[in-house]
Every structure is written in structure tokens, then in C-alpha cells.
Model the fold of this input.
Amino acid sequence: MKLYCSHTSPYARKVRVFIREKDGTARVTEETVAAMEDPASLHAANPLGKVPALVMPDGTSWFDSPLICEFLEGALEGPSLIPSAPVQRLRTLRQQALADGIMDAAVSIIFEQNRKDAERSATWLGRWERAILRSLAVLENEVTDLDGPVDLGVISVGAALGYLDFRHGALNWQEKYPELAGWWRDMAKRPSFADTAPPA
Done:
């Protein structure tokens, strides 16, 4: 299997951490691509032109990080990272949804900031930032739910927080949400996260 990814994408990092936590690096190779350059190889793997995209030996492809992780949960050996029990599964998927929403807003801010000043929307920038801060407040209040075995929810939250550190230092989120920041400092040392950290 081949994973098309970018080392700066939080969605790709989520999948890359997932693979490492499943002990699946021997079965999944990684190919780094620049999605904004519209490479043909990425379009063949994902018509949306986004990373991550996972391609099977027969050419079948999976895209969108939640779907890729669902597929890899069954395709790779190693510990289960998506609980099967309904209550635990829903908790994990809720954490993933919240983390993915943080990533969506954080990536949107970067794209908007890269627009010309006259085209930039202060309304949308403010809306996305407030969404991130509200979501972080929820995670701060529920930080104890992130303790325990690592699963897809925990991985997703870690990928989102790592992206905020990478691209949004001006938010000073670690000062505003100290319990969550402490959790992330410990999680960031885990080999799967340390190995997938974005470039300095």
C-alpha cells in the first residue's frame, strides 16, 4: 500500500501516526507530494487532489483521513485503535470529529491569510479562530477523556494540536488551556508523534 502525504498536513499526520500505532510501517510506504502543485499521481489516487490518499496494489484508492483510518483498522494487524463497543466507539469518533473541525478551521485560516489583503475576509478569519478556541475549551474540560489507551480520537486530537503549534503560534493556545497543553506535551514525545512531527 502507498500513502500519498505531506509532512505539513495535519490530516496526513493523523494517518501516519495511526499507521505507526498499528505497527504498519512495513506494509505502507509513504510518498510525499505537494498537493498545491496538482501532481498527476495524486489526482490518480484522489480526484479531489488532497492528501492523504491511500492506494492499494490493485490501484483501488481510499481518501479522506477518517475513511483511511477505518480501512487501516481492519487491514493492519496491531492494537485496535477504533473501539467496537458502541459507547466507546462514539466517544472516539466524537473526539475525531472535534479534532478534524479544528484542523479544518486552522487550515482555512492559512489559506485565507495567503490571499491578497483586499480579498481577505476578517469575518471568516474571526469565525474560524473562535471555532478553534471553543473547541479547545471543550477539550480542556474533557482532557481526562484523552487519558488511557491511544486510539483514533487521541491521535486526531494530537494531530490537531500539533498543527496549531506548527502554524498558529500566535493563538497562544497552550497558555489559555494549560491542562490540554500538558497532555499534548507528554503525547508529543510518543514515538509515533515524534516521528511524524512537521519540519521545524
In short: The two ends are 28 Å apart (CA to CA). The chain has a mean pLDDT of 97. Strands lie at 2-5, 29-32, 53-55, 61-63. The longest strand covers residues 2-5.
